[in-house]
Amino acid sequence: MITGVCALIAVPLTALAGSARAEPLTVFAAASLREALDGAAAGFSGEVVLSYGGSGAMARQVALGAPADVVILANEAWLRWLDDEGALRAGSVARVMGNRLVLVGPEGAAPLEDLSAEALRARLAGGRMALGQVLSVPAGIYAKEWMQSAGLWEALAPHLAETENVRAALALVERGEVALGVVYATDARAARVTVVQEIGAEAHSPIAYWAAVIEASEHPQAEAFIAHLLGPAQDGFAALGFVPRAALGALP
């Protein structure tokens, strides 16, 4: 009788364990990674639920205890802030890929060879230039660095339309609501816009996407997903125009 009772109990316990393993992996990620991570998740062995937004917004949600297992941000500063908050698992931080910054206009826009303040204001024709929020959205932070290094910030700051993430800035350009926008090169490839000028990498901090496991996560596949991003998924990232991890230099 005792053996029979144990057997009956063992079945639901096993089922519960299987159910726990089947829980999807929750990933909070920068909005500019949508196509890249959708593809990477499709090639992963487990179920992945992806939530996209501005890197600053994602970081703040994680710090407030949002139920994420992995976070992938477009700015090292936000990831280091989370680390300082004790929100990340020790030893799990890794650079996944890089990107480039470009200046875009609506589809069919003419190239803009002259990036002087006068030429940019002339192209705007009294309108605004779209970009992510310069204090919190990585693409906006990089864009401000470019404008400051080129001596354009004072002249262009009054003509900016700041958005909650880089995809929102891209949408303004795509709809023709603004004449110019500063976005990632990969965003431009995925939208009906025209790159009017590339912005040199020397004009801003290196653009890299950083991933880490959330300290509170108990998901058994969290670290495996990051390993997947660093390995099998790299070819897919490169095909979308991202800078592969191997080309980012010697940092971890």
From TrEMBL:
Pfam families according to UniProt: SBP_bac_11 (PF13531)
Metal-binding listed as a keyword: yes
SUPFAM superfamilies referenced in this protein's UniProt entry, alphabetically: Periplasmic binding protein-like II
Stored InterPro entries: ModA, ModA/WtpA
GO molecular function: metal ion binding; molybdate ion binding; tungstate binding
NCBIfam families: modA
Subunit structure: The complex is composed of two ATP-binding proteins (ModC), two transmembrane proteins (ModB) and a solute-binding protein (ModA).
Listed PANTHER family: MOLYBDATE-BINDING PERIPLASMIC PROTEIN, MOLYBDATE-BINDING PROTEIN MODA
Protein name (Swiss-Prot/TrEMBL): Molybdate ABC transporter, periplasmic molybdate-binding protein
Organism, scientific name: Roseovarius nubinhibens (strain ATCC BAA-591 / DSM 15170 / ISM)
